[in-house]
Specification:
This protein is of the alpha+beta class. It has 3 domains: 1-36; 38-52 and 157-231, Translation Initiation Factor IF3; 53-156, 2-Layer Sandwich (Alpha-Beta Plaits), CATH 3.30.70.2970. The protein has 5 helices and 9 strands, in the order H-E-E-H-E-E-E-H-H-E-H-E-E-E. A hairpin with a 6-residue loop joins strand 4 (101-106) and strand 5. It is rod-shaped and about 95 Å long. The chain starts with a helix and ends with a strand.
């Protein structure tokens, strides 16, 4: 009698335990599915800007039959370049004189020596328009006696941090618009933002190429966002 009663009680306890386990498992799955109902969308923010920094590198060379005359020619060439650069509101403080390298060659027929010198001048300035105009007129320096071997300009945008917050806000806004459009078209209700991750900011030339040859830049950032869906 007692043994039979004990078996019945044990069976009831096991049955209740199994039922409860099944309930909790089913409940967990249901809540998991509810929580996992979300959509992933992308939000793009794009802004056209003008470079705020220009690095203009001017390479030159001089030659002379004597070291003394070579020095004088170097001074003359550097003055020509400096006067040209500062002719359009660029201050002398923007100019940096690079190191000078020299070489000596001997003419096999006359046995006379030819001394050569090579140098660079770098202009770093925020006066973008001035650099654009002047860098297209380097023949003016040549006409005054300077031997210009190379002239190149790199345009950079160095104040990205000043527009990052606004662009991220805009990207998140566009991501929500995309989510709302999806929800409307699918006849479902959009919930709150689940999470969002920021992509890298990219800076390209206006023609969509990379590099620093163009003063006109396009900055882009994409935000990947997940929005919960309501039942």
């Amino acid at each position: 009698m007692n043994r039979a009663l004990t078996k019945i009680i044990v069976s009831l306890i096991l049955g209740i335990g199994i039922s409860l386990s099944g309930y909790f498992i089913a409940s967990s799955i249901r809540h998991f599915h509810d929580y996992s109902k979300f959509i992933s969308v992308k939000g793009l923010s794009e802004k056209n800007v003008t470079a705020n920094n220009a690095v203009w590198t001017i390479s030159y060379s001089v030659n002379s039959p004597s070291i003394k005359e070579l020095y004088n020619e170097l001074q003359k060439t550097q003055d020509i370049i400096k006067d040209f650069v500062t002719s359009d509101n660029i201050p002398t403080t923007a100019i940096t004189y690079g190191s000078i390298s020299t070489s000596k060659n001997q003419n096999e027929k006359t046995n006379l020596y030819q001394f050569n010198a090579y140098g660079t001048i770098t202009v770093v300035t925020s006066k973008i328009d001035s650099v654009k105009k002047l860098s297209q007129r380097t023949l003016s320096m040549i006409s005054k006696g300077a031997i210009i071997t190379d002239s190149s300009v790199a345009y950079n945008y160095t104040i990205l941090n000043t527009i990052k917050p606004v662009m991220l806000t805009d990207a998140i806004k566009n991501a929500k618009i995309a989510a709302e459009n999806f929800a409307t078209n699918s006849n479902i209700k959009l919930g709150s933002l689940k999470d969002a991750t920021q992509g890298l900011f990219t800076i390209k030339n206006r023609d969509n190429s990379y590099g620093s040859s163009d003063s006109q830049k396009t900055i882009r950032v994409v935000v990947n966002a997940k929005y919960l869906l309501k039942n």
